[in-house]
Amino acid sequence: MALSRAIASPLRSATWADMPAQAREDYVMLVAAAYSIDGDLDQARTRLERLDAPNVGQWIAPLVDRHLAEEPDTADTRALVTLAHGLGLNSRQVLTYLATLTPRPTDTPPPTPAQTATMAPSPTLPPTEAPATAPPSPTIAPPPTDTPAPEPSAIIEASPTDTSIPQPTNTPRPAPSATPRPTNTPAAKWSWTARLVGPGQEGQSCAEGHKLIRVTVLDAAGNQIPGVWVHEKYTGWYRVTGHKGDDPYWGPGEVELNNLDGGQVCIAIGDGGACESEFTRNLSCHDAPPFEDLWAAGYCDCREEGLTKDACRELYESGQWLAISHYYWRVEFKRAW
Question: Chain centroid to CA 94: how far?
Answer without folding.
Answer: 3
